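Progress against Task 2.4 (sequence-to-structure conversion) is shown through the following example record, which the project officer requested during the mid-term review.
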Amino acid sequence: MKNLIPLLTALAIATPLYAEPVTSSAVVVSPMSEGVVRKIDAANGKLTLRHGPIANLDMPPMTMVFRVQSPELLNAIKVGDAVKFHAETINGAYTVTAIQAAP
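Structure tokens generated for the chain above:
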């Protein structure tokens, strides 16, 4: 029993030394991806983008349809615009959560 207490104390001290820091997903900000607007379907809240790689989704360049998180996101863009956007998987659907016309 006398050997167990120092061992447990040593383990309690050593564990934090090797633990990885906890990072909240809200703190980690993924970079914006680049693309070109091919089609806007405002009635259904969808957007077709030809895009480059999307790092946070581990997705290669392609053209695809995304849902938009908020229909208001479509007000600031038009077909043919070069854009920067952020997409996530929400409820199993690829969803644009932020978009802006690229300078």
